[in-house]
Write a structure and sequence with these properties.
Number of helices: 9
Radius of gyration: 22 Å
Structural class: alpha/beta
Shape: globular
Largest sheet: 10 strands, mixed
Number of strands: 20
Oligomer: single chain
Strand content: 25-35%
């Protein structure tokens, strides 16, 4: 099956929907039709290598989250640099990764419906590395029964609630009771624990973030020890994220980190601060929305063609990457308005501007492809194969 898209340099094709799409002719980055999602390929690679080197130095594994990029090409780059597997937030994301030949995929949200359970069982049949989290005895029973009927074994991790109140079983006795129940289900294999404290990832200030992350993990670590005292082997203890990559790596219980945004970075993470100061700059921005100036409604303002349909708005406004002294304001679905307070360079009609996205994950989900560029040129497109896979 071939995938074709129209690009500024002509029709581009790929044999499979997750493969790079070669352009007929290289396209200058400033000629890309906007709005467009662009990736500085060299910066991306530096981010990937920095995180891989950090994990190696700390003797901890990585299990990067594909909900950030939704792109098997990028997942494979992470695996090539030593990741033990990847995470997927939803069953449909995991299906895309397995279709692309990625074996070790952990689904980090529980499922309860018959349809989703049957799809998880099918993933386990196709890939021995497929796993999913569970947080409820009845749902675990349904999953185990379906797996047994299909003649497969599904690897499960118990999802522990770190205090978020979103998903997960309470640590301590409730989690141990769930494990005892799972141990009696022949269709399931207990593989470990997940504890993701997403509520601390963007806490402002590294010291405060460290304190709150360690507090959130205390009962989970105690639960792991409780299970081991009962004779259960807890092979994996997974969680953490970009915001706590240099905090949770020093927690002995952790086997691997579910880092996601580090390869792109966004305004939300940069503003929460790092170990070294007020800007979280351990990794550099590599993901941008390109936009074009299309109107001058009044003196001191210029309108660009990127609004709510081009940028996720849940984390505030984007930052301008290539010019200072300019503030972005939302202008509606299709538009953004640049307030030209003291621009470091003129912005005229037809000029392209580069925006650091407020929140990378939902912004990526708005686009079909990445435009990776090197030396100012785009030579191929990377399909966002799991775009819209929210089931």
């Amino acid at each position: 099956m071939k995938t074709s898209v129209k690009a500024g340099a002509g029709t581009a094709t790929a044999t499979r929907p997750w493969e790079a799409i070669a352009l007929e002719r290289p396209l200058p980055i400033d000629s890309v039709p906007t709005p467009a999602l662009a990736v500085d390929a060299a910066a991306l690679e530096r981010n990937l290598e920095r995180m891989a080197a950090h994990a190696k130095a700390k003797d901890i594994a990585l299990r990067p989250h594909t909900k950030t990029h939704k792109c098997p090409l990028l997942a494979k780059k992470q695996l090539e640099l030593g990741a033990i597997g990847v995470c997927a937030a939803k069953v449909s994301e995991a299906e895309v990764m397995v279709d692309a030949g990625i074996e070790a995929v952990l689904i980090t949200s529980p499922v309860v419906t018959r349809d989703k359970i049957s799809r998880v069982v099918e993933l386990a049949r196709r890939s021995r590395g497929a796993q999913i989290v569970v947080d409820n005895a009845a749902a675990a029973t349904s999953l185990g029964d379906a797996a047994r009927s299909a003649g497969v074994t599904v690897g499960v991790l118990i999802d522990l609630d770190p205090g978020m109140g979103r998903t997960g079983v309470a640590p301590g006795a409730p989690a141990l009771d769930l494990l005892r129940h799972i141990a009696r289900l022949p269709g399931l294999r207990f593989d470990g624990l997940q504890c993701y404290a997403g509520n601390v990832m963007h806490v402002n200030g590294w010291e405060e973030r460290r304190k709150r992350s360690l507090q959130a993990l205390e009962r989970a670590i105690e639960t792991k020890a409780l299970m081991e005292r009962e004779g259960f082997e807890v092979r994996a203890f997974t969680g953490g994220g970009t915001g706590t990559f240099d905090i949770d790596c020093d927690v002995d219980a952790f086997t691997d980190l579910q880092v996601g945004s580090y390869l792109f970075m966004d305004v939300g993470y940069r503003r929460c601060g790092g170990r070294g100061g007020a800007v979280f700059n351990d990794f550099e921005p590599s993901l941008f929305v390109l936009a074009t100036a299309i109107s001058k409604p009044a003196a001191g303002y210029i309108t660009i063609d990127a609004g709510f349909k081009s940028l996720s708005a849940d984390s505030g406004v984007p930052d301008l990457y290539d010019v200072s002294g300019v503030v972005y304001k939302w202008g509606g679905d299709e538009h953004g308005i640049l307030v030209l307070e003291s621009p470091s360079r003129p912005i005229e009609l037809g000029d392209q501007v580069t925006l650091i996205v407020p929140h990378c994950d939902p912004t990526v989900n708005l686009y079909d492809v990445f435009h990776p560029y090197r030396n100012g040129r785009v030579e191929e497109l990377w399909p966002i194969s799991a775009r819209g896979k929210s089931q």
